[in-house]
Amino acid sequence: MLRVTPFDKSANRGEMFRMQQKAASLGIPMCKPVEFGTCEEGIYILQTWIDGEDAEDRIPELSDTEQYAYGLEAGRILQKIHSIPAPETQEDWEIRFNRKMDCK
């Protein structure tokens, strides 16, 4: 899958690609990052394709037991994601949160 972002909206794409690499290295089921670079249209990220169905459509068809099992698996995946430290350039969470609340 090829994702292209115009240069004027691509400020954090390199960092996003590196974070995707870290997540993929933990065995998280996801589109794996393959290549990052520039093209005439902007910044691109090439990723592997992952087959599947939208959970929003599929989950209601599952039994409560199956839904619970998927919920546990989602929690394990989220725990792995949260083990990745935030980038040094990441703005402090409290500042971001307060700015968002000030806009409401």
Task: Describe what is shown at a glance.
This protein has helices spanning 13-25, 55-58, 64-82, 93-102, and strands at 2-5, 33-39, 42-47. The protein is an alpha+beta fold and 104 residues long.
Explained architecture:
The protein has 104 residues and is an alpha+beta fold. The protein has one domain. The protein has four helices and three strands, in the order E-H-E-E-H-H-H. Strands 1-3-2 form a three-stranded antiparallel β-sheet, with helices on one face. A hairpin with a 2-residue loop joins strand 2 and strand 3 (42-47). The mean pLDDT is 92.
Question: What brief labels describe this structure?
Answer:
alpha+beta; globular; 104 residues; 3 strands; single chain
The overall number of domains is 1
Structural class: alpha+beta
Largest sheet: 3 strands, antiparallel
Strand order of the largest sheet: 1-3-2
Topology:
Layout: E1 2-5, H1 13-25, E2 33-39, E3 42-47, H2 55-58, H3 64-82, H4 93-102
Antiparallel strand pairs: 1-3, 2-3
